[in-house]
Structures are given as C-alpha cells and as structure tokens.
Amino acid sequence: MWRWVRQQLGFDPPHQSDTRTIYIANRFPQNGLYTPQKFIDNRIISSKYTVWNFVPKNLFEQFRRVANFYFLIIFLVQLMIDTPTSPITSGLPLFFVITVTAIKQGYEDWLRHNSDNEVNGAPVYVVRSGGLVKTRSKNIRVGDIVRIAKDEIFPADLVLLSSDRLDGSCHVTTASLDGETNLKTHVAVPETAVLQTVASLDTLVAVIECQQPEADLYRFMGRMIITQQMEEIVRPLGPESLLLRGARLKNTKEIFGVAIYTGMETKMALNYKSKSQKRSAVEKSMNTFLIIYLIILISEAIISTILKYTWQAEEKWDEPWYNQKTEHQRNSSKILRFISDFLAFLVLYNFIIPISLYVTVEMQKFLGSFFIGWDLDLYHEESDQKAQVNTSDLNEELGQVEYVFTDKTGTLTENEMQFRECSINGIKYQEINGRLVSEGPTPDSSDGNLSYLNSLSHLNNLSHLTTSSSFRTSPENETELIKEHDLFFKAVSLCHTVQISNVQTDGIGDGPWQSNLAPSQLEYYASSPDEKALVEAAARIGIVFIGNSEETMEVKTLGKLERYKLLHILEFDSDRRRMSVIVQAPSGEKFLFAKGAESSILPNCVGGEIEKTRIHVDEFALKGLRTLCMAYKQLTSKEYEEIDRRLFEARTALQQREEKLADVFQFIEKNLILLGATAVEDRLQDRVRETIEGLRMAGIKVWVLTGDKHETAVSVSLSCGHFHRTMNILELINQKSDSQCAEQLRQLARRIKEDHVIQHGLVVDGTSLSLALREHEKLFMEVCRNCSAVLCCRMAPLQKAKVIRLIKISPEKPITLAVGDGANDVSMIQEAHVGIGIMGKEGRQAARNSDYAIARFKFLSKLLFVHGHFYYIRIATLVQYFFYKNVCFITPQFLYQFYCLFSQQTLYDSVYLTLYNICFTSLPILIYSLLEQHIDPHVLQSKPTLYRDISKNRQLSIKTFLYWTILGFSHAFIFFFGSYFLIGKDISLLGNGQLLKPNHQMMFGNWTFGTLVFTVMVITVTVKMALETHFWTWINHLVTWGSIIFYFVFSLFYGGILWPFLGSQNMYFVFIQLLSSGSAWFAIILMVVTCLLLDIVKKVFERQLHPTNTEKAQLIKANSSIKCLDSMCCFSEGETACASVGRMLERVVGRCSPTHVSRCW
Description:
Family: Belongs to the cation transport ATPase (P-type) (TC 3.A.3) family. Type IV subfamily.
Keywords: ATP-binding, Endoplasmic reticulum, Endosome, Golgi apparatus, Lipid transport, Magnesium, Membrane, Metal-binding, Nucleotide-binding, Translocase, Transmembrane, Transmembrane helix, Transport
GO molecular function, one term: ATPase-coupled intramembrane lipid transporter activity
Cofactor: Mg(2+)
InterPro entries: ATPase_P-typ_cyto_dom_N, ATPase_P-typ_P_site, ATPase_P-typ_TM_dom_sf, ATPase_P-typ_transduc_dom_A_sf, ATPase_P-type_domA, HAD-like_sf, HAD_sf, P-type_ATPase_IV
Shape: elongated
C-alpha cells in the first residue's frame, strides 16, 4: 500500500525492471497469468504549478525570500504581544506583496500550460478496433499503432512497423533533436513492412521487448517477437527502427509505428533538464543586503533594549508617576520582559527592511518585460514574429552575461547552403545569376569573363563520359573544355546520397542548360546541406539528378536521360573525411567518383591541376566558403572484381569490421585524377558576424555547441567570425582514452603558455569532452579560459548542459546565456542562467522552454546591450534607493528613543508608517525603473564596450551599497537634528504630547516634530530620485512632483478634518499648524538643500575626475547637439562645478525649463 502511494506521488517509478514488454495494439494474452505494466500517458509538461499545488508551492517559494519570511515573523509577533504599532502595518504590505507576486507567477505558468495544451491537444490518428481513429496526442498509450503522414512530427517514440514503400523504409529529419538537417533512413522488420493497410495491421500479433527509457538519442536495444501461423519469429530492433518524438517524417507518404515511450519518458523529454527556479545576481545581492540590514535592525533593537534597562536602573525612571506598573508587571520574569521589549523594538524598527522592495521589483520586472515585446527592432517582419518574454524574473540578468553558448544549425545559420564558386581543371568559376563565369582567361580565350553557360550548346551529341587523356591535361579546344566541365558536374550529380521526391521531369533540361526549371520542380533531401546545394547547382548548370530506383541513378543532360548503375557507396566518415561512389556508365565503363576535404583528396591524386586547385581552395576558405574536392578514376574489369571481393569480405566480417573497411577504402581511393573543387556558402543569418564581434567587444566569451560534425562546425565558425583566420586553432578531438586526453590537454596548455600574443581557438568533440569532464575538469577549464573562442562539436543535448554547468560552478561563477532553436537545445537553455530560444525552422520546443524567445540571432545584441543594460541600471538603482529611503525613514525613529527614555513611542503616526512606502515614495522609483534611459539606446548598441561598465554586478558592489547606506544615515541625522536644533525652541509650534529634553526645557510637540521630520524626508528622498533621473518624460514629472503634492494634500485633509471612523486622531490640526510657521518652511528648505548639496558636489567632481566609459559616452552625446532631458546635476564639458550646481538650483526654483537642457551624462 505504501509503495502504491509513493508511486502515485511520483517518488517511485511504476516499473522497476530493466526491460518493458509492449503488446502491439494492446492485444494482451488471454490467460489470466499476465499483469499489464503501467506506463505514463503521452502528456508533455513544462509548467511548474498545478491547480492543487499552486498555493502551497508558491507560498513556500515566496517565503524562502528573506524579507517575506522576516515580515511574516514580525506580523506574528505583533499578533502575540503588545507592540507599539498595529499588526496591520506589517500584515497589509505583506499580503499585498504575496498576492501580486502570486498573480504574476501564476499568469506566467498559465502561459506555459497553454503551450503544453497546444502540443498535447494536437490531432493524431491511431489504429483501434480495426479502424483509424482520430484522437489527441495526449491520449496515445504505449502499444498504440499510430499513423503519421508526410511532414508530420512524431508524437511519441515509435518503432516503425511499415511505410508506403515495399521495403518498409522511411526518411526522417531530426533537426529539432540533434540539430542535424540531413535525412536519416529508418527501416521496419520484413514481417511488418508488408502490412501497409489498417486492415492488415489489425491481424498483427506481436510483442516488443526493449530497454527502459533513457536519454541517449542514438542508443536503443530491443526485439520484436512476431507470431505467424503458430510460430514465433524473433527480430532484433536497433536505432534504425526507432522514430523519436520531435523528429519529422520526410519524403515518405505515410508510416505506421507502435508507441513504446510516451510523454515525459520519450527521449526528447528525458533530454529536457528539470525546470528549476532561476534567480538573478541582483536578487542574490538583494538577499545579501537584506541580511546586512537585518543585522543592523537586530543591533538597534538590542542597543535600545539594553539602554532602556540601563536608564530604568534609576528608580525615578523605572516607574514614573504617569506610568505606574501593574502588580503582574512587577512580578513578571525579567528575562521575559527583556525578550518582550526586544521584540517590541524589533517591531518598532522593522521598516528598515523594505518589504515593498519586492513588490516594486516584481511590478518592474513584469511591466518592464512588455517593452521587449513592443520593441520593433526585435520584430521579424518576414516571419511576423516578435520577441517573447516567458520569464520576466531575469530581465536584469541580460545585462550581466559573461558567456554566451550558442547552437549552430538554425541559430547562427539559416540552414540553407548556396553554391558560390568552383575550380575546374585549374580554372576558377563563380556562379552569377545561374551562369558560371570564369574569373580568369581560359586556354583558348583571352577574355577573362568567358561565360561557360554560353559555350555549352555543342553538348547535345554528348552521350556518355569521355575519358580520353585529352582532358586529363590542359584542353586544346573548347570541346575538350566542355567535356571536362561535363565530367566535373556529373561527378557532382552522382557522388552523393541525395534523395528526391515530387519528381516531374517533363521540361527539365530540354533546352540547352535550362537552369530555371529544375529547382522549382525537384525537391531534394540530402544527407548534408552541402550535398543538396551541389546537386541543385549541377541542376542549374544543366546536369540534373532525376532520382534513383533500386540500384540505378538517373541523370538528365540537355534533355537526354542517362542511367548509371550504382555498384557501391563508400560512406563518409570523420577519419577519411571523404566519400566515394562506384558507378557503371551507360557505355559499360566503371568509374570511381570521390568527394571530400582537400586534405583527404589531394594527397591521393596523381593527375589533374593539383597545385592550382590547392591555391583556389585556400582562396575559397579565406572567403569563409565550405570547400570540397572532386576526383575520379576509371576502373578496369580486373580492378573492379578485386574491389568488389574485398568490400564483400570486409562488410561481412564479424571481427574488426570497421578497421577492415577502412583498409579497403584506403586501397580503393588512391591514384585519383583531380577534377576540381567546389565552394559552398553556408548561408548565415543576417548580421551574425557583427553580433558575435559585438559580443566579443563587450567582453563576452562565445562558445558554439553543436551536434554537427567537426569539419562543418569549424567552417561555419570561420565564416561567422567566431574563429578568426589569424587565430591559432587548437584541437581536442578523437581522444580514445583518459590518459591520451590528459596528455593532449597538457600539450595544449603548454602551447598556450608559450605563445602569449596570438589568440587561440579550441575545437573539442563530444567523445573527447566526455573524457575531459570525467577526471580532467580543472585542466580542461584552464585551457578553455585561455582561449578566445571555443567550439564543441558532435555534442549530445545533455553534454551541452554539462558544459554550461561546468562553467557556472567554476571559481569565477560567471553569468551564462544559452541560445538555441531546437529540442536538442532545451537542456542547455534551462541550465544556463538565461535561456534564449530562436523561433526558427526546427519547431518551438526551444522557444517554449526558454526565458526569452527571439526570431533571429542578430536580435541578441539589442537584447543584451540595450535592454539588458537598461534593466540592470534601473533595478540596481531601485534596490539601493529602497534601502536608502528606508534608512532615512527608520533612523530618526531610533534616534528619537534617546529623547523618550526608550519607551517605544513612535515618532510617526501609524498612517504615515503604513503609507510611506506604499503611496508617498513608491511611484517615482517605479516609473524610473520602467522608463529610465541614462544613455541613448543607439549609443549603447553601437558601442558594445559600454556593456563592460555594468559587468560583474558592479552597480551593486559592496562599495556602492555602503555609499547609499551611509548617505541614508547622514540624511537621517540631518532630518532629526536639523529639526531639533532649528525648530526646537519655536514656541508657536507647541502642540499635543510635549517632549522633554534632557535639560527639562520644553520643545514643540512630538507629533509636530515627527511630522516635520517626515515632511523633510519625503521631499528629500523624492528630489534625490529626481537627481538620479536622466530621461525625463511627462510621466516622470507627474509622479515626482505629484508625489510631493499628494503628500501635502493628503496631510492637510487627514489632519484638518475629524474623521468619525478613527478612534483617536493624534494628527488633528498638526500639519496645518506646522505649515503656518515661517521657521518651519525655512527649516524644510535648508535641510533639503543641505542633504542634497553634498551628493550633487560629489557627483560633479567624481564625473569630472574619474568618469566611466558610459559617462564619457554621455558627454560625447551631449556635445553632439542631440536634445533630450537630463539629470539635474549634469554638466557640459568645460563647465565648472559651481556653474553646474547653480544651473541645478535654477531648475529647482523653476527659472529654467528642463525641456531645453541637453543630456550631458
């Protein structure tokens, strides 16, 4: 029973065995001995709360915050003991904060629920009871047979049963899972491949036994037991039979598959990192500051309690005639009285902890996040997508990023390759408007712009490949030149693994090189984007790959169909870095065509223009183009028989199959004749290079984490500016053991130390990374920290998250940002401090699970340099200003106790205590935190180096924090003692509640005194906020000056009328009496000016003597005559400090219009 309860609560998985047994179509055995296993449903859950756990879970998370928990304790203390203030003064703000925060977080989680419901409610077709039933994705059960049509996404992990092809094969793309856009072929077992209809599948009786779910995308082991005619047939199942959730069906009309893993047990979901609460660096600083202020609070309470008992040691003060003790008080325990007094002082001073800080921060984050969505610069018109904010808690973290981890495919690139140039027999060509144009003179023409396209009209009579020696050397006439070009592009059209669909050959290539028809009528699916781009380029030139049927490849040249028999494919691998095909031409001749990197092709060539081609390849690479070399050789019958025999022996070997195949491939791919080279551009997204360069200038290190192969990743890194051509590229790849990996890391570390000038870039693959992270983390991190750029290729999704976690927990504790567009990027997006999803072509998994979603990588620069900068400055000022104004608020209360014998008498009226943070001083800082622009956004984006001024949480450093705290204490002393000495002997202000000085001289009433202190304080902290404001709008003016006016109007009404619902009204006529005194007005103005003058002078001299880069940029912007509204204490270049202060005073008294002042800092 207990185990069942734990399973229902999610503490124990429902299945404990290493394997699971799945009955296809849920046809369970009829005997009663079988107990069906329980599997989870197919729902995907990315939300954090449910209806049932929202209240307790949200309350738990909120009371983890120091201020919330503290005010809860204070509220309970006020309920339990007699305290100077009402429980409402703490309970009401606490309730307000908790409620607003819960509404905000509930709304954000509601959006995640809607996103989950959209996925879980997607329509699917399931075979049930002999028919095809339409249902929702969430209703799929393990064992259901699901039908998927072309271009649909698999809703669960399926084992392929059959497709519309007789061989039971299908093609899928896993771009949203591992970032690879190539087509992968999956096959069904022969016994189920023939079951292509619902009726035939209904007769299938089979059982699948497989491993329990695991996160590895490329590992799957199982077997299918098929019962046919009372016999059991056992077939093995591997990764080639498994169709993963999130992958997309391509080039296949429809398939049927059985669901084996569903919902959160699919491999895609298991690669999601569990969603945890992310906390920004600013929030961590807030908690630190709160603890410091809590220590100050406790210290003040202890000092006050001790001094109270010290004072009461004299009998006349222990029990004065006006405050006689009761018998119970006389007999009570001294310890209990001490604790009670300590708690009472704690309640009296508790407002030094600003509870409204949290609600203001929550409102600022929530409302401020809308500006990201409203930013037209972050709107992508082509896709009609605007930026999205999924979590507003991290807005300011955008201004603290030190590491950016980015995916490659679909994030940096458009996933579209384009053929640009080629070198054929030592002559370089480039494609211009569908024509190949030579960049230099051909042997038969002095015209350097001879169009190859116009010279091929004589090829109509060319029926097969020409292999005479005439084109193995320099051609002697135009016909030989054309034959060589023809051979080159036929090699391009035949040496690949491209698939084709929607074949419509009528009209393709019927005229001489009809280049404009092929792309619109043929749909190619390639094993790599390069292959697709090359085959499409050959089609534009006029040699069109039509498709393959069984073992035949069809090519159409000038309208003439040619069939080549495909004899063997020598697959690409990362060690050889090339692939080859062996074909038989229509003439019966056999040819080997090879394609690969120049480092693997050129050393195996014995003929052709090798040196010229090498030079051209280097030129292509310098342009950031992806290069491949093409070569061929003709095989004699004897040579082919030897090759065929060796390939058969290697491919059927049970031992050391990979090594034997490598030896055979090396034997075959030698003595080649070089045809030329191709140059393909991996089309980057707009402004990727500029964005990466801007990030680098901002002091942000960029890492590229991709699932692509090594060569592809390095090429893109070079083309996008991640790697520079002058950078020394270090490699940690193909490591086989821990010792080998450690030795290689030590060598790399030595190389970096020996060369202190050149920049280094590091390339590491997934296998080597696993070894490095296993036992050599410190050494690996040492190498990485000394590299300007790092590229990790062949990365599994969880490896990406591990790399980010490794950086996060390093001694420097840097702030990390991850950006990606596919489901394979979700883990790293959730692991990083800030996760950015690209709303690209690989689905919406990344965008749904990210903190922010943008349409293009280029938008990252404005998101960080402008929005991140603004949000950080705003919230840093907000946090410190709140502590400042609360120190100003409570310190006079502490000082007042020295003048009332520590009787716990309040200095302020309870209404003022409650409304100070809620009404009188809340709006100016809130509007500042939403609208402040201390520098023009265009300057921030054009000067990424300004981002360094706010890095490392500099605006919330201990030094800055102490400055604001000391400023608050100094202002509080001026408020209290200024009021005491300036107005203390004004007989006209005598009022209720006379206050005795230690020398027994009378001073004005305590409520009048407290109101004067409060009035000076409200004006000072509000004008202080005005001094911090650089960007003035009518809203800023309204809330700044309106707050002061509201305070005066409220106090006049509150103290000028006898309100019947108030039991006692201590403030009656106090404020009116205060304002009737000229000395009070003089004191208010003098204290406000005194408080702010020192701060103004400090700012002026600090900016004059030690300006930051941001302040210099503000000065330059001001001198460029760009008009805007500035701070009251700005100054122009060459202006003296006195002139600046004089100008500020003019503005304060209204003799200068702020609308005509230029922003200077």
